[in-house]
């Protein structure tokens, strides 16, 4: 009797170890990591209305995105992302209205895409109105931020609980499905922003939006069905 119980415990323990080890390995295999400095050096970024340079500092290799007079995107070699998770490590500047970083997805062309971006200069703003404009969802070309703020105030942009400093390296993560987008800052358990998508596009390109920012890495976790 005791031997049987011990064998069952051992079997359950082995099964647990199997799922912990091999389950994690399977998940890890789904992840695609892009070092942006490498992509830029290899000519694999398609740059629209932005300046991009490769930088190295403090054991980090990253790209610096400049520009801002016209809308622009740094397009990545990812053409058919559907659902899943996209994550970037980025850093902005504490300059009002002059530093942004974000993720474009489900892009159909250079002007039709969804975008979630951060306004780092608003992360810890003393002004209560500015503070609730820290992270934004838009769906170009129809639903830009002025329209959304006017017609749906407080729905498609939010403040961030326990916000990072404006010039910190920040992890911005998006969980995306056909109908909804959830955005997280620095792996927080609670999303900073949850919105319903404003279009029916269910796949497309991925890119980087914003300017006066640095972006080190992008990780993509496509959902497998």
Description of the molecule:
- The protein is α+β, with helices and mostly antiparallel strands and 225 residues long.
- The chain folds into 2 domains: 1-30; 32-222, Exo-inulinase, domain 1 (Jelly Rolls, Sandwich), CATH 2.60.120.
- Helix content is 20%, strand content 41%.
- It has helices at residues 2-30, 36-41, 128-131, 145-151, and strands at 32-35, 46-48, 51-57, 60-66, 73-75, 84-91, 100-109, 112-118, 135-140, 157-158, 169-176, 180-185, 193-196, 205-211, 213-222.
- Strands 1, 3, 4, 6, 11, 12, 13 and 15 form an 8-stranded antiparallel β-sheet that branches. Strands 2-5-14-7-8-9-10 form a 7-stranded antiparallel β-sheet.
- A hairpin with a 2-residue loop joins β7 (100-109) and β8 (112-118).
- The longest helix is centred in the first third of the chain and has 29 residues, at 2-30.
- The protein is globular and about 40 Å long.
- This is DUF1080 domain-containing protein.
Percent strand: 35-45%
Can you say what the CATH homologous superfamily of the largest domain is?
Exo-inulinase, domain 1
Approximate shape: globular
CATH class of the largest domain: Mainly Beta
Low-confidence stretches at least 5 residues in length (pLDDT < 50)? 4-29
Q: Total domains, how many?
A: 2
What is the overall number of helices? 4
Order of helices and strands: HEHEEEEEEEHEHEEEEEE
* CATH topology name of the largest domain: Jelly Rolls
Number of strands: 15
Secondary-structure class: alpha+beta
CATH architecture of the largest domain: Sandwich
Organism: Runella aurantiaca
Protein name: DUF1080 domain-containing protein
